[in-house]
Protein: 2-dehydro-3-deoxy-6-phosphogalactonate aldolase
Organism: Salinicola corii
Amino acid sequence: MNETRKFALETALRERPLVAILRGITPGEIDGVFDALVAAGFKLIEIPLNSPRAWDSIAAIAKRCPDDVVIGAGTVLDPEHAKRLADLDAPLLITPNTDPEVIRAGVEHGLAPMIGCMTPSEALAAAKAGASVLKLFPAARLGTGYFKDINAILPKGLPVLAVGGIDQSNMSEWHAHGVAGFGFGSNLYKPGRSAEDVGRVAAELVKEWQRLSEVAHYAEQQEREADA
């Protein structure tokens, strides 16, 4: 990952850790949907490899990806895919599971492994292998109470994204429990949805994240003033 992408990733994870998951998207749709997401303010965009001609879609947007946006592949199950992503300057390597071999391949090629996990053993194994981000999946089925329990044993400073069943209605609850960010799938994009609709939903999600961030910032200020 070059320094420009590294800075973009660090900034996105700090300021707007929202991942658009475009499962099922086709090369014919990708340009319009990508532009709509970028215009709405999304900085992290994933194309799952079980989408039709996924590599063609990744290559198409990699050629014109803005400097402050980071793209990559989801549903990565093969370590050999790491080199292909590195060659395309698409540094997000996102998995649905915890496979140390895939993680190590991502690290070796300078990618950012965002690793799916559900149990404490999987989460700690992913962290040990070099995951940049953990992806709690399926988050909504597990619940915020489960996340609170598992988060207590995770390495401090390792971001955890809630993915699976997350939308505008439950972002606040998860954010209050300390999740670092979110991944959005079918509530944001599903095959056949117009770029205009994707952009509208994306803008609503970004707006909600900004609201939650402002609330958290205000609460921190109040706490500091109370301690002063």
